[in-house]
Give the backbone structure.
Amino acid sequence: MIDRAAIVTGAGKGIGEALALKLGAMGIAVCCNSLTDSGAKTAKRIRAAEGRAIFVGGDAAEEMTAARVVGETLAAYGGIDILVNNAGVVLPGTAETTSIDDWDRTMAVNVRSVFLLSASPYPPQGRHREHLFVGRPEGRERSLRLHRIQGGRPVHDPCHGGGSHRQGGAGKLRLSGDHLDAVAG
């Protein structure tokens, strides 16, 4: 059995790819999920660096895909300890110009996929579950802060004291206390 395992949605590029690679480098087994085969390349890079990784492709906003991501991760690693809900879309438009289809797609990827994976009853007995939710630190438009959640409550709330917001270069990841800062270029 693996010590720790993670699911990372949107693992094919950008912050999701960087997070999956970082988790793999930390010795955490990773299930890379993405809508395209780009997540397979991320998993391959983790394995090339002697990490453990699988790829489960598909749209995490679809119930069957979310169930497959969870099922294949459990089968491969015996548990899921970390869930990084990173997949997301930003479609251009305003309330006046956005189509219903674009609105539905945005809500499906940005909200429904988070619900489907977060609500999955996957932690086997004796395994601990953490969720990492992407959030933007105040005043840091090009960076993200991932919040660790235990038992449905934040372990650290960077908006209410105790956190430092350090700037960095492109693709930088910093572990600090109970959060991971990811800074885009």
